[in-house]
Amino acid sequence: MGILGGILGFLGLSGTKFGGSCIIGDDSIMSKKSHGTSSTPVQEHLRWGCDVKLADKICNFNRHYAEPSGSFTSTDFISQAKLEYEKNGEIKFHDSNTGKLLFVAPKGRSLDNFIKESISHGWPSFRDDEVIWDNVRCLSNGESVSLAGTHLGHNLPDSSGNRYCINLVSVAGQASNE
Known about the structure:
4 helices
């Protein structure tokens, strides 16, 4: 580690440590594959009325950009999430490419708190306890990705800890049979 790296690390600005449960993955997760950064395109029928074309662009051919802030509020997400929560006590979020489980929310907070925080930040916002680390990694620059190469969003820590601002189109998949 060079002098600059050491200084940035001391200041907490190196981008390689986020604390909490965050697992850092290697950039090779997002290497070029047969469909952008993934081996497959997004599923044809996404949950909550998410746009398949936008989802494919964000998930597979993008490393830095997001769906428009607040756009998840123009889908069926909030009303359907409330129904799923009433039925199951949680909401499951699956990779839009593979259908693998990526997040389960809310955990350690109320549904209202989860929705309010998500609306406040413009994207569904998850905390460490809500991440399925068997299928999700953070890269050193804060990018949140699935192990299948799906761009999910970014980890933007705040005073409460890690906050994963995730594109709804990236986690609107139908559950896989795995």
